[in-house]
Amino acid sequence: MRSRILAILTPLAAVLLLAGVFWQLPVVQAVSGSLLGWIITLAGVAGLIGIGSLLASHTRRVAKGQKGWFFSLIALLSFSAIFTLGLVLTPADAFYTSLIAAILVPIETSLLALLVVSLIAALIRMLRPGMDLHSALFFFSAVVFLWAATGFVPFERSPGIQIILTLFNTIPLGGARGLLLGIGLGSLMAGWRALIRPSLGEP
Amino acid sequence: MIDPALYLILLAGLLMGYFYLLESRGRQRHYRIVPSFARLRRAVAILIENGQSAQVALGQGSILAPQAGSSLAALETLAGLSRLCLAGDSPPLASSGDGSLYLLVMETWRMSQGFRTSAKKINRQVTFPGVSPFSYIAGAMLAQQGEDVAMSLITGSQGPEVGLLVEAAERNRAFTGGGSDHLLAQAVLVGTTRLAFTGEEYFALNAGWKRDRLHAASLHTQDVLRLLIISAILLGGILTLVGK
Asked: What are the pLDDT digits (tens) for A47-100?
């Protein structure tokens, strides 16, 4: 019964939402707008459920004294402090936003720095005897494009070097467009699959 | 005036219907098997045989955002892997950093386990590690600690910070692989994981587990549409040249 209802509701909702995107008729806009409103409200509630689950798992870890319980305790205390301050000062308050930025920005910058070290280590790991063509190309292009990005290119203004630099700018652009084309088509087909699967009764 | 994008969407649907009918009538068309799929299947087989667990990071792509396609593909991948893991009695750990996706992950995980799992077990296996990109990654890194995780599969919409999660999994000697819809994350995954699925390969991940008629039909449609778009680009280029 549940699957039959899903099989009817899923395509119906999709058609209504699509109609709202492609037709500017007031009736269609009103129906798809209210449907979108419900979905946004449901997504907001889902976010609250997620945060509740996050807090519950940290509380469980502290209560049971599991590995890393101290970090969970810090997470819970920080959450309570930020949440209470947000309620008192409101998120629009300048002090509140600067306080959060003062905590978040250094942490995220440190993690980014850590990521750079990890990537350099990964690049060095690629340099090994018997590395395949794919790894060699990746390594070579990473080094060349890093060097080109530094701006220290000898004879930068000479026509020959200009052609090479233009080529260097075009290759990644072409590659990125190719990948984005694949991603776009993949997303479109994933949407169709999600839409059709309940109607076909496929697992 | 109807938007040309609508024609593309409808054409995709019609083509998929046609290829699905062909698949249903037993006229299976051959599609290219990416060598990485075979390696991934082998890694999963070893995992099941050893009774170890896998971690699937489904990212932060909201179902309401343009990244929805990537998240839907990630859910299919989770369902496929979770069904395979039934044989080893070690269900995968799954994590997501978006509320709407989190609910879908729980539902997908529960359905793939055959409705026989308790809510307590679902809460233990399906986690919501954090809301912001870095807190999500940090939480997912913590979630795999203390678990016998032998595989870390990165799926969904992820940023370049996913490199930290891969690094943590590699330090635990876990097999790492995956893909994303984000170009920077793809570059990071190519450099750090053992198996990276780039571009449309990522969306075909679920077809790597077993032959699924609907997925096979959608892959054929994708191929046809790609050829059409490439032809249109080439034709546009030639016409521009001729016009000059």
From this structure: 999 999 999 989 998 998 888 889 889 999 999 999 999 999 888 899 999 999
- Which residue type sits at A130? G
- Which residues, other chains included, contact B56 with Cβ-Cβ below 8 Å and sequence gap of 6+? B74, B77, B78, B81, B92, B93, B94, B95, B153, B155
Domain interval for residue A113: 90-126
Tokens representing B237?
């280029």
Which residue in the block uniquely carries the two structure tokens 């070097």? A161
Asked if the structure places residue B239 within a domain, the reply is no
Q: What is the pLDDT of residue A1?
A: 67
CB distance from B8 to chain A under 8 Å?
Answer: yes
Query: Looking at beta carbons, which residues of chain B come within 8 Å of A120?
Result: none
Is A62 in the same domain as A111?
Answer: no
Name the token pair of B230: 């490439």
A188/B12 CB distance under 8 A? yes
Would an 8 Å CB–CB cutoff place B144 in contact with chain A?
A: no
| ipTM summary value | 0.89
Place of tokens 């790492």: B176
- Tell me the pTM: 0.88
For chain B, what is the radius of gyration of the CA atoms? 19
What is the spatial distance between Cα B12 and Cα A187, in angstroms, rounded to a whole number?
Answer: 12
Asked if B69 and A191 come within 8 Å (Cβ–Cβ), the reply is yes
Distance of alpha carbon A149 from alpha carbon A74, whole angstroms: 41
